[in-house]
Write a structure and sequence with these properties.
17 helices, six-stranded mixed β-sheet, Rossmann fold, globular, alpha/beta
Length: 509
Amino acid sequence: MLDRIDDKAQQTEVVLSVSDLTRTFPGVRAVDAVSFSVRRGTVHCLVGENGAGKSTLVKMLTGALRPTSGAMRINGAEYDPTNPQDARQCGIATLFQELHVVDELTVLENLTLGMERSRFGFLVRSDLEDRVVSTLKAIEPSIDPAARVSSLSVAQKQIVEISRAASSGASVIIMDEPTAALSEREVDRLFAVIRRLRAAAVTVIYISHKLDEIFALGDFVTVLRDGKHIATRPLAEVAGRAALIEMMIGRTVFQSYTPRDGVGDEIILTARGLTNGVLRDVSFDIRQGEIVGFYGLVGAGKTEIARALFGVDRFAGSVTFKGRPVGNSPKGAIASGVALVPEERRTQGLFTSLTIRENIPVMNLRRMSRAGIYRKAEEIAAATDFVRRLRISTDSINKRAEKLSGGNQQKVVLAKCLFSEAELLLLDEPTRGVDVGAKSEIYDIIRDLADAGNSIAVFSSELDEALGLCDRIFLLFSGRLQAVVVNGPDVDVAHVLHVVTGGAEGTVE
């Protein structure tokens, strides 16, 4: 059971420390010689832009990744987990954005899952059940241990996970974007639970893009930028949102945007009142030949807008393309002239076991046939043409897609969408996982397509990408369209981050 700890001296004790922690991937140093300490019985917040290194750091803390170099210590002892089970045994538990509860089991069964005691292969009675129930009651007495988890709200399911972590003896609980799917009332309840944990000397490492939450809840904050440790400070010493944002940026954001003359006045797509489980009354227009960006942080709703426009997800509201309703399915969207390059290209955008030649025509097979006869010669001609136009690096159009680099796979997905004769391309994280050279080539392709009259919507979590590529940028936060930025040299980057981290709403034109 959680007992209140009143000894303030315990909150000066270091429970977790990292020293020169580094993790490299081919061509990338995701975490670069990071060093900081976390005190017992505090809420220690971890912030940074997308790509700052937060996720990689957490994976090393939880044993999901091994550091390339550096050291970690927990409760004064050397800490070198080889897997998440090692981390749990050493007292580190993690609550991910995606819940890890079993809906078909009861609350009690979820609380004891993985901690059951057995003898000769049979479960044996222990004090475990009494202990986990006592912990649950101390955290949230309104939850019935006998209730099925499927009957609980998202916030209550999170509390079950927190109770399981606390009853396992965890001294550090890592919470990754825990409020992404919660209502305002549920957020308040979660904060109350976190404060009870802190009062019982449990340390919470809290990761969030919502800066108001950081200031409302945190004792300390660590800022990461480009894989490096920028600062660890008491939040009482941080002079508000502007100062924290300045630490997060700390550089001039690279902008290579050149104003374009090809944008017409004709509105090609109109979306009004898009609303579903994530989106909240989102409305916007896209013009002929325009590159628009949708920029936001985790949970902002970028991908959900793309999926709604392409007919993958259901929504309330309306979408019209060239004056006609877009179908409520991908097939209907393609028929209307809308195509999507999905974020997960390998699992959602490609048939990796098929060749380049076989992948390109799949969104418009009717174009390859006449009188019911499939014309292989035209398939070969189309593949050869797109390999040339998009500069796909391959020695043969008959190479399987799985053998291509990430950048060339992305070009094949673009070729598929172009072959479908789409007039509006939805590009969800178009350069994720590709190298710098391939990024530049993809950006050139996008600009060329827009200059040729295609409309492009780029859904990106990279601010550099949005500012370098898009004519207008829609800023999103928590499922809402907060503001629109007309791109140019005078864009206030700090204000952009202020808006997408939950600051005052801007004006949507």
